[in-house]
Structure formats: C-alpha cells, structure tokens
Amino acid sequence: MSLTEFLQYVIDGLGSGTLYVLVAIGFTLVFGVMGLMNVAHADFYMLAAFGLFFLGGVEGLGWGVLAATISVLIGSLIIGFAMFHLILKRLDKEIMIAFFVATLGVSFFLENLVAKLADFRVRSVPALFTTHTYVIEGLYITNSVAVSLAAALIITFGLLAFLNYTEHGQLLRAVAENAMLAKGVGIDTGRMTLLAVLIGSFIAVIGGLLYANTTSTADPFVANTVSLKMFAVAIVAGIGSVGGALVVGLFLGIAESLSLWVGVRGGFDGSQWQNVIGLVLMVVVLMTRPNGLFGKFERIG
Amino acid sequence: MPDDSAIAVRGLDVAYGAIRAVQGVDIDAPRGQITALIGSNGAGKSSTLNAIAGLVPIARGSVEIGGVDATRLPAHVRVVERGVVLIPEARAVFLTMTVRENLGLGIRVGREREARGHKSAFTLEDAFRLFPVLEERTDKRAQYLSGGELKMLAIARSLLMHPRVLLIDEPSMGLAPLLVRQIFAVLRGILREHDVSVLLVEQDTAVALELASSAYVIEQGRITMHAPASKLRGDARLKAAYLGADAAAGRPAPEDAKEPCP
Ligand SMILES: Nc1ncnc2c1ncn2[C@@H]1O[C@H](COP(=O)(O)OP(=O)(O)O)[C@@H](O)[C@H]1O
Ligand SMILES: [Mg+2]
C-alpha cells in the first residue's frame, strides 16, 4: 500500500465533501432558525445545474457561462424569496409533519417540472472554467477540487463571522435559540427566517454550480442523493452547527472515497458501500449523541 | 380617557387547542401605576400577559395599549412602536449569548424607539449602577449566571428598551427572599423615576399587594375579583384561597423559597 495512493483518495474525497458542506450549511442554518427542515433545500443543486444548462448552454438560450452563473445566483434569491412567502411562512410550525410534507411536495414539483422540461434526461452542462490537473509529489489535484475547497472554507468561515460579529447575525442566533423571546425583544422573526432562507439558497446554488461543473451534468433527480448527504451531515454535526457541517461534510466525503480504496485493496466493489456510510454515521450518532457531535440544539453558529 | 390607560383588555380568550386557558378576561391597568394579577398555578396569568405582548394568539376579545387598539399587531411591533415589554417568568435571557450581547438586544430596541421619538433616560451606565454584577460578568455567557443574575439581566435589558408598559411575570419565582426584596426596590425606584406602567403577575400574593395599587384575581381563566390593593391585603377569603392552593400544589411557603441555581 502506498501513501500516495491513500492521499489521492483523500483528495478525491475532499472534492465531494466540499459539495456536501455547501448544501448542508444552508440547510442547517434554516433548520436552526426555523426549527423545521426544508426538505426541498437540496433541489437548489438541481436548479443550479439546469440554470447553467437552460441559460448558458448551446442547447438552451446560449447566454454563455458567466451570464448564466450570475442569473443562477440572482435566481436563487428570487426562488428562496418565493419559497418563503408562498410556502414556508404559511405553514403552522407546531405541525412538523405538515412542514415535512409541504416541502417534500415542493421538491417533487420542482424536480418533475424540470425533468419534463429536460425530457427526463440527464443533460451535459457547459464548464464554468477549463479544468487543469496539477501533479504534485505524484498526487493529482484538479483546479475544480481546489476551487470547491476554497469556496467551502471561505463560505463557512464567512458565515460564522457574519453570525458571530454582525447585528443581523446576532438576531439570527437569537431567533434560533428562542423564537418567542426573540419576538419579545422586538425582533421580526419572519424577516430573520427570510434572511436565513436567502443565505441558505445562495450558498446552495454555489454548491450546485460547482457540483454541476465537477460532474459536467445536470440530473433532474440529483437531490435524491444530495439530500441524503445533506441530512446526514447536518444531523451528525448537530442542527444549527455551521462549523460542524464543514468538519462532518469533509469527513463524509473522505470516508466515502476511502471506501472505494478499501474496495480496490480488498477486491470488492467499494462504491456499493459509499451511500451507506452517511446513513450508518447518522444512525450511530443519533443513538449516542442525539444533538449531534457539535450541536447544542437551539443554537446556530 | 385614553391618556390614563396603559393597558385595557376586553373579553380576552386564549386557547391552546382544546384547553381554554383564559376566558372573557377584562383588565384595566391605569397609567403610572402598578396593577397586580394574582392567582394560583395554571390560572391563566402567563397566558394573559403573553396575549397582551402578542406572543400567543388572541382567540377572542381585544387589547388596547395606551388607548389604541393593538389586538392584531405582531409582537415585535408592540415592542418597538408601543413600548410594551414583557419580562417572562422563565427563559427570559438568551443563554448562548454573553451578558453584553443580551443587553445589546435591549439597547437596539431602545435606539429604534428613540428614533420614533420615545425618549428615556435609562442607559447602560444606569443598568450597571443598579446591578454592578452585570458589569463584572459582561463577557460571560448567560448560561453561567446564577438565577438571580439572570433575573437582573432580564430586567436591565427590558429597561434599556425604553418601555412604557412593563408586563412582569413572577419576578420572585425561584429567588431568595432577600434578592426578591432587592429587585422589587429597584423596580419601584425605576417606575417612580420614569413614566412606566406595570402589569405584575405574582403568586406571592403578599409581595404583589404590597407593591400594587390595585389587583385582579384570576381563577381558572376568569377574573373573580378586582379591588384596590389596600382592601385585598386584609381579605381573609383571598388568604384562605392561596394558602389552600399552595398547600394543595405542595409548594413551599414563599418564606422558605430557596435559590435553586448554582
Ligand atoms: N403552550 C401551552 N400549550 C398548552 N397548554 C398551555 C400552554 N401554556 C399554558 N397552558 C395551559 O393553560 C393554562 C394556563 O396556564 P398559564 O397561563 O401558564 O397559567 P399561570 O401563569 O397562571 O400559571 C394551564 O392549564 C396550562 O396548562
Ligand atoms: Mg405563569
């Protein structure tokens, strides 16, 4: 066994791990602030990819990658805004199952709408940038992994700084800890929820754009797998824990990649185990630490 | 005379599903006075205060603040525009935040109210002068404060919000008698200095009647008595009712109350 080979699998794992981080931090932020989960959150990955396909690609409107990317970023705010006003704020927070079913419905609707528009096919999307592979000490590192990792780190630490050192960040933390008291100290909790949804949507489409760029594809049902990782990362890290989502997301990506490596070494198909790892992790953590590894329920940051 | 009314509640109903916590309650809290709302555990006192603050839905009836209807206003608007500030009985402080951050939330509302023309002389220095321990602990997370310190922090934050009406829910709960007396002395001083009206909920009937100019008694969600405090102080029926209720609930008499926090 060579160290280089092992490290190569770690690097590949970091690439997918960063994409789990970017979907999980918005989900966990909104979950923390609202106390409820938006199941449709992972669909921003699908929307970002098809935004690139329909707006940027030659099979679509052909605006080019830059214009499509900017449109997707702006579009995420519009869709987040609409989702909040049409669905999220109208639901009775006391009835958790209503929230679950309603956001699941939004997810089905969006996925099937886009699938119909795309003729129920996986499409190929234009690349955000030309991929380069650097060879350093025998390790293959692509610029897309480097960009994804940089994005995940900058966004996570930026969000943590926002939550901890700005007034709006403090107001978000107040609502997450105790929404009733937050109202009592004059905070417009609805506005803060909208803010969390907008931040989460924006971060998610950044992840979605990078995901589409890495895989070069737009799959209408990509959220099926992405949402599984999103739940696993957010729950294992602890709901509301943004920093925890970074650590756990990267760990999950690396663990999945290493399962391939173990497969190669052991002579079996490790890819069959990949999707199980997150679930097993989730079950084990839920049994031993119900609030997650980094979570103290009712706080974000 | 709207100018003389701080809070006017009319025919208030509060319900939690099938539980009818408050039924047809009328309360008038005159401006510049302390009005007490007393009653045993589960009588509907907190529900009434929360409904006035806009924190639980009003099923029926109306709430006027300073003579102007506020029944449909969201809670944060009642705070910022009408100056109605609730000091809850429990979970009154953000435990994951520092003392400074908690006070900052009060200052933020105070600033917004000042921008709307509601002046008040109460400053952070005043808060620290009243409760020096808060200044010592300013960078500590609230979760490390004692029960008494949490109470002081909640009161200081509320005063920084430039309130016109304070809704105070069981300020003596869980505190040692000495601390209770200290906190009430502070409150009395503040109310004399600033133009603040108070609706005070207390299970400790003796304490409440000592402070208030008039009192309402609530039983099983309905007002059963309303009289000047001086009259109620000697009321044998009231005493019997509350000694009975306390004994039945297995609660210690207020004199034996211990400080439960570390
Ligand atoms: N959030 C709630 N959900 C359901 N029932 C509640 C809730 N809050 C209070 N109640 C019920 O309403 C009644 C009045 O409660 P409350 O207003 O807290 O009384 P008090 O403050 O006088 O002790 C009680 O029967 C209590 O159990
Ligand atoms: Mg109560």
Automatic annotation (TrEMBL), chain A:
It is found in: Cell membrane. GO terms for cellular component: plasma membrane. InterPro entries: ABC_transp_permease, BCAA_transport_permease. The chain crosses the membrane at residues 20-37, 44-64, 70-88, 95-118, 138-163, 192-211, 231-255, 276-294. Its main location: membrane. One of its GO terms (molecular function) is transmembrane transporter activity. The keyword Transmembrane helix applies. It is a multi-pass membrane protein. It comes from the Bacteria. PANTHER family: AMINO ACID ABC TRANSPORTER PERMEASE PROTEIN, BRANCHED-CHAIN AMINO ACID TRANSPORT SYSTEM PERMEASE PROTEIN LIVH. Belongs to the binding-protein-dependent transport system permease family. LivHM subfamily. This is Branched-chain amino acid ABC transporter permease.
